[in-house]
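Q: Hi! First time doing this. I have a protein sequence and I read that you can turn it into a structure. Is that right? Here it is:
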Amino acid sequence: MVILQTVLLLHGGVHLKIPEELNCSPWDAARFPFFSVHFLIHYGEYDILPFGSSSKRRATSERKQKNMIERRKYLDALIRRQWNGRIKVITGIRRCGKSTLLFDLYREYLLADGVPEDHIILLALDDDLNEKYRDPYCLSAYIRERTSDSGRKYYVFIDEIQFAISKDELKQQDKPVRLYSVLNGFLRLKNIDVYVTGSNSKMLSKDIATEFRGRGDEVKVYPLSFREFYEAYGQDKTEAYNEYSMYGGMPYLLSLDRDEDKFKYLSDLFEEIYFKDIEERYNVALPALLRELTSDLCSSIGSLTNASKISRTLQSVKHIRVDAETISAYLKYLTESFLFSEAVRYDIKGKKYFEYPSKYYCTDIGLRNVRLGLRQQEETHIMENLIYNELLVRGYHADIGVIPIVEKNAEGKRVQKNCEIDFIATGGGKRYYIQSALNMDDPQKAGTEIRPLNAIKDSFKKIIISKSYGKSWTDEEGILRINIIDFLLDENSLDR
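A: Yes, that's right. Below is the predicted 3D structure, encoded as structure tokens:
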């Protein structure tokens, strides 16, 4: 009691937060021998916590010290998949937070849940100290040795697993990949639960589906959504949106204050991480072309393109002669490394996909902007990219919609033309037709956006996302009108 009183006097009117289960005043709390005063300085509050909460207390403290963002969506996905008899494969662009999710957030959850620390095996293959474990058989021997006690359960975390696939195995498509047999072998060990991260979809997502015969379980991680960014960034919504639209959602940016530092960080990611990885893994013969192609895709987000078109453009504009086949291969490298996503066109009336052309969107808008030197800041295209990325984060498959419309031309003749729906979002038995329109104040522009939606005759929801709207509303034609910030902040916004 005396000690607690002294603390209160020294800190002048400090507020003590008492656990609900205690149901007493701060003074009464001091009488309980199983409680201690634990000082966590957080918005001016001091917490009294039970001794039994030491692991949870430690986890919370560690998270605050590391300034980590609680990525609840992905953490919950891992928790749901515990001990499901499958390899958990966490994929995503490098530096988007996969390692933090697994090695920090999920590990802390397990520790708080009572898992002993020595029952969590951590191994980062991109660390030079662990280079020998990039050999799959050395990796297997190490994990089996660490988990040899069959009477105990272990969690195995392997970061950047693609380092365990050799360049030769990558080049020779017919050559068996040793890593997959090792991971399959882990599945036979009933006392380990295996989680791996990787930054290459070809080496992970696609191959795991075939090699593991349904025993691989993928969790896709993206850079911070605007909702996650805003919760960490604070400030005014509009200010946060402007910052996010400029520099994107790579988590480390939240620790940087100066614009020049943010610019340098994102630029360095391209040169030191992304390009280096792609060039080394795929033995890229034309690194300058890879960089030029990246800049071209960044410049043309929201525009239809394909390998042949890019090849012609490079030749006519920049006098770079390169065949479409090479361009196609490099496009594949960029999408497999999660730098870009390809959105293909879908014929709504004919119910079929077009083979080409497609649209490419940047996984992180900040990377796109910095790659272009912050010169091409077209709000229309940036907003469209943000909407596309948000749909992927929510687990939807996003296509470009095409709908034929018959109209009269200037001569009064009826002609058919294909109109575009920016996105068809499908998932969970739902479908949404979405138009991205920066400004809907112009009646002519509004008519252009609404006309394709009205041409669709099915009953799925139709939506226009715009920066010019205030509060969301549904018009007399049943079209939901929603502001871009409200759309990004509310993950249930499409169902309003």
